[in-house]
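Can you make up a polypeptide sequence alongside its tokenized fold?
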Amino acid sequence: MKTKIVGYALSTLIVLLPCIASAQVNVGGYGSTFGIGTADLESAVITVVQWVLGFLALIAVIMIIYGGFILLTVGGGNAERAASSKKIIIAAVIGLVVVLLAWAIVTFVVGTTSNVAGG
């Protein structure tokens, strides 16, 4: 159930990200709150992507801590609960690696396109 909710939330975010990127940068004065201000579209998209990936990395770290806490508090040799916590930790580490790879890809693509565009 929880994975479905997270999946739906991430799918919605992926669908809405281009809409957010193409919107006006300083709508209602919120741009300065997020460090965007009246920046150009490229830096606004980079800032939004950094916020999203930072949030996802934070969730992955929290899940690693949660899985570790469950693993440490397994009492009485409950093998099922220990296996469940190991699965949580492995999934969170995989998620963290995916987030870091996404950040690297975005950094590479933005650097390459700005070099090609002459920026």
Observations:
- Confidence is low (pLDDT under 50) at residues 22-27.
- The chain has one domain: 2-113.
